[in-house]
TrEMBL record:
One of its GO terms (cellular component) is cytoplasm. The gene is LOC118405858. Pfam families: Cyclin_C, Cyclin_N. One of its GO terms (molecular function) is cyclin-dependent protein serine/threonine kinase regulator activity. This is Cyclin-O-like. It comes from Branchiostoma floridae.
């Protein structure tokens, strides 16, 4: 399921199993913080525009009730958004692979592709928020801790293990997570040991602003139709694999995805700041790749079937 190239060389962080009576491994490793996450400057004031009425003819099977319920307390909702916007610099690592001697952007892309496949094929299917949080945990940990290739999939599995506890009603257990990895590659004890190391390294800061959270807020506030939201979500999920695109601020990525999706579905475009325009240019490359394999009507139908709830 996961490319064999991930398990190639001895790691810089080794996980040698020393089982006690409870079956757990002891943790004698030390991870030194070697990288200070620098701020990512994104768009701060381009979130007030709303899309106009749809102009694209939507197939009957994709027509849903697009009525947007007004929030019970819009003041509280706005305060939540401003809090998340102010925190995104703190929890969005930039150039997280700069001090990784073995892991490249391509290897990170393979890991994210595997995580995406797991989240979308699990029964019941895992929430998109789980995937985005797991990738955020991976990037933040890699930004401060050197890691070897043979532990990269274990880090992804650990991040998914933690993310399901935060987002899912029924989180995955350690045995389920281990079974998703290459057969016999890792043990439950190694997973639990790395979980402790990741949580300690990140200071247990797990409520973080991701692009999918900004997307849900902006889509509702701007009263975007459901098909536009589905296409924007698919753009964000696909772009998670691209290390370059993930350097953009999550809020800018969310607004760029909505803007690009609205231009295709409704032929509308809003005024945005330069940071969002740069995101749109990068996301257009992702969209062109999608449309090389699927014509626009088929792509929209696939997005609707994939993300309609």
């Amino acid at each position: 399921m996961f490319p064999a190239a991930i398990a190639m060389k001895p790691s810089m962080m080794k996980f040698q199993s020393r089982r006690g009576s409870d079956g757990e491994t002891s943790d004698s490793d030390y991870c030194e913080d070697i990288y200070d996450v620098s701020p990512m400057h994104g768009c701060t004031d381009a979130f007030t525009s709303a899309a106009t009425a749809p102009k694209w003819s939507v197939p009957d099977q994709m027509i849903v009730d697009s009525t947007v319920q007004a929030p019970a307390d819009p003041t509280y909702l706005n305060e939540w958004f401003l809090m998340m916007k102010s925190n995104e610099v703190k929890f969005h690592p930039v150039q997280s692979l700069n001090n990784q001697p073995q892991i490249t952007g391509e290897m990170r892309g393979l890991l994210v592709r595997w995580l995406t496949h797991v989240c979308q094929t699990m029964q019941p299917r895992l929430l998109p928020e789980t995937l985005f949080l797991a990738v955020n945990i991976v990037d933040r940990f890699l930004a401060v801790t050197p890691l070897g290739l043979d532990c990269l999939q274990l880090l992804g599995a650990t991040a998914l293990f933690i993310a399901t506890k935060m987002e899912e009603v029924h989180p995955l257990c350690a045995e389920e997570i281990v079974s998703l990895c290459d057969e016999g590659q890792y043990t439950r004890g190694q997973l639990r040991m790395l979980e402790r190391k990741v949580l300690s390294t990140l200071g247990f800061h797990l409520t973080v602003p991701t692009s999918i959270l900004f997307l849900e807020h902006l889509a509702e506030a701007g009263q975007y139709d459901h098909l536009t939201s589905c296409l924007a979500r698919h753009l964000l999920v696909t772009s998670l694999q691209d290390y370059v695109i993930c350097q953009h601020a999550p809020s800018s990525l969310a607004l760029a995805a909505l803007n690009l999706a609205a231009s295709l579905v409704n032929n509308t475009r809003m005024n945005t700041c330069p940071a969002v325009e740069r995101c749109i240019l990068d996301l257009q490359l992702v969209l062109m790749t999608m449309m090389d394999s699927l014509p626009l009507p088929d792509l929209l139908m696939m997005c609707y079937q994939q993300y309609h709830q």
